[in-house]
Write a structure and sequence with these properties.
The complex is a heterodimer. Chain A is built from no helices and 11 strands. By secondary structure, chain A is an all-beta fold. In chain A, strands 2, 4, 5, 6, 9, 10 and 11 form a 7-stranded mixed β-sheet that branches. Chain A starts with a strand and ends with a strand. The model of chain A has no long low-confidence stretch (mean pLDDT 95). By secondary structure, chain B is mainly β. Chain B is built from no helices and 12 strands. In chain B, β5 and β6 form a beta hairpin. The chains are: A mainly beta, B mainly beta. At the A-B interface, β4, β5, β9 and β10 of A face β5, β6 and β11 of B.
Chain lengths: 112, 118
């Protein structure tokens, strides 16, 4: 089975711009979660989607949003980028009934 | 709220030596427990998990961990370190009973960077 894929792998944006990141889960996995990883804050939960519905959201401002499509693929959007949004964004997928999550390689976002 | 503490942000061992990475959690109900490894410029790879059953769990690459409820710990060990084990290791928990805001999320420790000397 193919693993979780994320595109693009690297991205450079300017402050004030917006960005969309994409995640394709493992086949058959209907839950997709997003995490932000920074040296200062570590790994922080952004949100989780299951069957196209956001089930849970972390403590991030409304500039961070996401969605999930009927094929379970997910996108994450960040509007009005700030320097502090520079991070590795990780996507993880799991089946609906399990607890272990499988991570993609991440998208490295740099905001200048 | 869930919290995870990894004692020691950096651990150094010689090749062939025992690896011990410590993890303690704070939860009123024993959660599900995981160890992940992250190599440079990569995502997280699941090493092992504890959900129910035997408290000593074996994972990939020769790692194992023991869940000790009385100590709220889930330490990761490997009898003999290899150069390829050098990476960052993360302990994570997931609530065993979903409570709205905890549904589907992992809580991570701050990570332990493992260095293996030849």
């Amino acid at each position: 089975k193919a693993g979780v894929t994320q595109t693009p792998r690297y991205l450079i944006k300017t402050r004030g711009q917006q960005v969309t990141l994409s995640c394709s889960p493992i086949s058959g996995h209907r839950s997709v979660s997003w995490y932000q990883q920074t040296p200062g804050q570590g790994l922080q939960f952004l949100f989780e989607y299951f069957s196209e519905t956001q089930r849970n959201k972390g403590n991030f401002p409304g500039r961070f949003s996401g969605r999930q499509f009927s094929n379970s693929r997910s996108e994450m959007n960040v509007s009005t980028l700030e320097l502090g949004d520079s991070a590795l964004y990780l996507c993880a997928s799991k089946t609906g009934g399990s607890y272990e999550q499988y991570f993609g390689p991440g998208t490295r976002l740099t905001v200048t | 709220a869930q919290s995870v503490t990894q004692l020691g942000s950096h651990v150094s061992v010689s090749e062939g030596a025992l690896v011990l990475l410590r993890c303690n959690y704070s939860s009123s109900v024993p959660p599900y427990l995981f160890w992940y490894v992250q190599y440079p410029n990569q995502g997280l790879q699941l090493l092992l998990k504890y959900t129910t059953g035997a408290t000593l769990v074996k994972g990939i690459n020769g790692f194992e961990a023991e869940f000790k409820k009385s100590e709220t710990s889930f330490h990761l060990t490997k009898p003999s370190a290899h150069m390829s084990d050098a990476a960052e290791y993360f302990c994570a928990v997931s609530p065993a009973f979903d409570r709205g805001s905890t549904l589907g999320r992992l809580y991570f420790g701050r990570g332990t960077q493992l260095t293996v000397w030849p």
